[in-house]
Amino acid sequence: MTDIHTLHILNKTPEHPRSKACRDALQPGDALLLIESAVLALAAQSASESDVPVYALASDIVARGLGQCAREASLIDFPAMVDLTTRAQNVISW
Amino acid sequence: MAANPIHSYTLVITGAPYSTQAPQTALSFARAAIAAGHTVDRVFLYGDGVHLASSLCTPPSDETHWPTEWSIFLTNNGIPGVACIASALRRGLVNESERKRYELSASNLLEPFIIAGLGEWVEGNTTSSRTLYFHAGG
Amino acid sequence: MKNPVMPARNNEGFLENANDWTPDVATLIASDDRIELDEKHWEIIEFLRLFYKEHEMSPPSNRLFVKSVKEALGDERGNSIYLMQLFPGTPAKTACRIAGLPRPTNCL
Amino acid sequence: MGTLMVIDQPPYGTWAGREALDMAFSLAAFDQPVSMLFTGAGVNWLRTYQDTREIKQKSVEKNLSAAPIFGVEAMYACARACTQYGLGPENMVDGVVLAENSSELIRQHSHTAFAG
């Protein structure tokens, strides 16, 4: 079952130009997965601007001391990340 | 209809160990994919990612040795690890036959990695059901 | 007829210095492969040298070599059988060697 | 519907764009449909009159001009980035299609990839 059109996997900080390009590319039916430095977006003061489901790798969040501020994303582990890639028709690694 | 269809993955790593998190994230992903019953068709190292296949990486003993971790994982699961030849030669990663061809002083390709062309990536792109990239962050 | 001196070449017969190339040198390199250059060969050699000048690269694989020849000179010449007959072995490699272009990286 | 190789990094200062170009060429070599999208600082690949002799690198302008010969189907440039970097018809290489909406373009391709 592919219930996600495109899974966007982002590993760049919010300042990185590709982060903006990724956000701009989000469309209804897509999902966003934050990994590595991209989880820092959850610490930045920003309204949750996207209408798509946002996931974030828990290990990257915990490593960066962000356990408390990750309310805007569903925290997942690697098995769940694998699962997300199987549910998506396309995957883009930004 | 199976609730959880089996997928095949080509994983492309373009970030180098010890300068990016890419090889680590990719390894955790690959382990989870195998554990879930999926297959990893091949791991393709491109750009700075080829440094993962160097037999000369020597991190301090209390840090994870990512080339070794990857080497063991690939060997245990029979997954081909391919370093792009153009990326590899530019960055000083060579196997024995390239060493001879270019008359170099040493070879340094870690087993079971092999050196091959981008055709391996093209094949993965067309035959695997998913191709995932692990780039440098920043 | 003068007898050209073979310039320095690497272990696969490619010129060490691209500026050493002359048509006479090409004839000499070709004779190593037991190829006697005729106008069909020269057409491809000239095409390759022009391609290199325009794009600052040789076609990076044999397939792209065939494609480029096809694009420039048509189907009759741009097919691997024709090029294989002219430049035995791996045509792109053999032709680049004779045309005085760098050794391809074997990228594909 | 083919692969979209994206170049979003500037030429010369970083190698990633060249590696993306090699990927596009190799897809073309195996007759896989591929197009390229230049966006962000990557649109600077498309400027005419690049003279790289002094920095001793190959000209990406010349390298890129082989793309149609090898069978790269289309070259798109993000219109917004072109405006930002002062690129217009007078100083841009031929054969580039301006894309007003990159996300639509991404949507139209089955794979979108960066080289690094």
Class by SSE composition of chain C: mainly alpha
The largest sheet of chain D, given as strand count, sense and whether it forms a barrel, is: 5 strands, parallel
At the third CATH level, what is the topology name of chain C? Arc Repressor Mutant, subunit A
Which CATH class of chain C is shown?
A: Mainly Alpha
How far apart the termini of chain C lie comes to 41 Å
The most extensive interface, with participating residues per chain, is:
A-B, 23 and 25 residues
InterPro entries (chain A): Sulphur_relay_TusB/DsrH (IPR007215)
Protein name (chain A): Sulfurtransferase complex subunit TusB
Protein name (chain D): DsrE family protein
Organism (chain D): Marinobacter salexigens
Outline of the structure:
The complex is a heterotetramer of chains A (94), B (138), C (108) and D (116). Chain B has 138 residues and is α/β, with parallel strands linked by helices.
Structure report:
- The complex is a heterotetramer of chains A (94), B (138), C (108) and D (116).
- Chain A has 94 residues and is an alpha/beta fold.
- Chain A has 3 helices and 5 strands; from the N terminus they run βαββαβαβ.
- Helices cover 27% and strands 26% of the residues of chain A.
- The longest helix of chain A is centred in the last third of the chain and has 10 residues, at 78-87.
- Chain D is an alpha/beta fold and 116 residues long.
- The mean pLDDT of chain D is 97.
- The interface between A and B is medium-sized, with 23 and 25 residues.
Can you give keywords for this protein?
heterotetramer, A: 94 residues, alpha/beta, Hypothetical Protein Ychn, Chain: A, five-stranded parallel sheet, C: 108 residues, mainly alpha, Arc Repressor Mutant, subunit A, Sulphur_relay_TusC/DsrF (chain D), Sulphur_relay_DsrE/F-like (chain D)
What secondary-structure arrangement, pairings included, does this model have?
The complex is a heterotetramer of chains A (about 90), B (about 140), C (about 110) and D (about 120).
Chain A: E1 4-10, H1 17-25, E2 31-34, E3 54-57, H2 58-63, E4 74-76, H3 78-87, E5 88-93
Parallel strand pairs in A: 1-2, 1-5, 2-3, 3-4
Chain B: E1 8-13, H1 22-35, E2 39-45, H2 66-77, E3 81-84, H3 85-90, H4 96-101, E4 114-116, H5 119-127, E5 130-134
Parallel strand pairs in B: 1-2, 1-5, 2-3, 3-4
Helix pairs in contact in B: 1-2
Chain D: E1 3-7, H1 16-29, E2 34-38, H2 60-64, H3 67-70, E3 75-78, H4 79-84, E4 96-99, H5 102-108, E5 111-114
Parallel strand pairs in D: 1-2, 1-5, 2-3, 3-4
Organism (chain D): Marinobacter salexigens
Pfam families (chain D): DsrE
Protein name (chain D): DsrE family protein
